[in-house]
Amino acid sequence: MSLFSSLLSKLSEQRALYFILLDPDRFHDTDLEEFANKCSSAGVDGFLVGGSLMVSGDFDSAIKTLKNLTHLPVIIFPGALSQISPFADAILFLSIISGRNPEHLIGKHVIAAPVIKKHNLEAISTGYMLIESGRRTTAEYMSGSAPIPRHKPEIAVATALAAEFLGMKVVYLEGGSGADNPVPFEMVKAVSDNISIPVIVGGGIRTPETAGKMVDSGAKIVVTGNYFEDKTNWGKLVEFADAVKGRV
Ligand code: 1GP
User: Fewer CB atoms < 10 Å away: N or C end of the chain?
Assistant: First the structure.
């Protein structure tokens, strides 16, 4: 069974999945081990691994650590072409469909595809949509593309529908890492109500309440990153997982 099919089958049993985004640049090895174990026991459903720059972190070894210490799926969330590893379970094959930069619509894909095939990695075709979230985000800057205005859910719906019609498997609504404001609930709802592929939401989610409301609005996978880069927040992992799964 493909990893994507197994996620869909898990989604048929629980209302949504909770994923942690991990940037190997931001964790020391020992912290990573402790964090992985905590995620696993808290009820996290999987890891996304990636970062915009990858300056000091070791990408392969972070993935291997997560695979060795947990039974959870590890999916690459590539911030650059260098972030393709044979040790992961799958890779989000991202097209930044909110923008009009051809490099992120087909250019990088052509270079990445043969490497992904060589590593026998499962590619999950993802319509990645940057949503305006306050200040300019790293994702916006690095991708050289404009986000969808946050008060224009109809543009988000049209874009997400196009992703579905193009055969993409998921839509990712992205506020941007560390965003001032998460994706508006109304937009998550409008998109979720209009497409039949799963909606992933991330960026600027800092409370279990927000995570839970994303799911109430229709998100099928909720992602948090920054918040748990601060070790003092690790005790909140269970609350986030519970809120996503409706166990509160
Ligand atoms: C994943 O970029 C997000 O989509 C993660 O955002 O770091 O703000 O949680 P945060």
Answer: N
